[in-house]
């Protein structure tokens, strides 16, 4: 799923016997958040966990944060692990300011998140 005007790509893939990964690249804002929102709604949370790979995320506004919180709520409702991976220092600072560092589990990379889920 891509929005070429606003530069967001969401690439979903299932790891072999492990978590479902949503690789997010570009700008996550009010113009593009619906792409990630749709991918989160389509993700099989009931299975082996979900990893949001944000290594390619270059920008995230409050609408994007709302989508991330929607993913968190879905993970809680289904008792499924959710991890955010590859969050850069600038984005992590914003997440810390708004308290998301207390909500999400973070990993340095998607590989580390997948490994932490025991897969």
Head-to-tail CA distance between termini? 26 Å
CATH level-1 class: Alpha Beta
The percentage of residues in β strands lies in 25-35%
Percent of residues in helices comes to 25-40%
* Main β-sheet description: 6 strands, mixed
Query: SSE string, helix = H, strand = E?
Result: EEEHEHEHEH
Q: How many helix segments? A: 4
Let me know the CATH homologous superfamily.
Answer: STAS domain
**In terms of structural class, how would the helical and strand content be classed?**
alpha/beta
Task: Report Rg.
Answer: 13 Å
How many domains? The number is 1
Number of strands: 6
pLDDT averaged residue by residue: 92
Shape: globular
Q: Widest sheet: strand order?
A: 1-2-3-4-5-6
CATH architecture: 2-Layer Sandwich
At CATH level 3, the topology is: Transcription Regulator spoIIAA
The parts where pLDDT drops under 50 for at least 5 residues are: none
Give a description of the structure.
- With 119 residues, the chain is of the alpha/beta class.
- It has a single domain (2-112), classed as STAS domain (Transcription Regulator spoIIAA, 2-Layer Sandwich).
- The protein has four helices and six strands; from the N terminus they run E-E-E-H-E-H-E-H-E-H.
- A six-stranded mixed β-sheet has the order 1-2-3-4-5-6.
- It is globular.
- The model has no long low-confidence stretch (mean pLDDT 92).
């Amino acid at each position: 799923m891509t929005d070429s005007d606003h530069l967001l790509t969401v690439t979903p893939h299932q790891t072999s016997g492990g978590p479902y990964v949503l690789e997010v690249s570009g700008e996550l804002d009010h113009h593009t958040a619906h792409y990630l929102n749709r991918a989160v709604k389509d993700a099989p949370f009931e299975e082996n966990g979900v990893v949001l790979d944000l290594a390619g995320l270059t920008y995230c506004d409050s609408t994007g944060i709302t989508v991330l919180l929607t993913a968190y709520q879905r993970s809680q409702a289904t008792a499924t692990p959710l991890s955010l991976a590859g969050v850069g220092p600038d984005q992590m600072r914003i997440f810390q300011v708004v308290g998301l560092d207390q909500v999400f589990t973070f990993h340095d990379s998607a590989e580390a998140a997948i490994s932490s889920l025991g897969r």
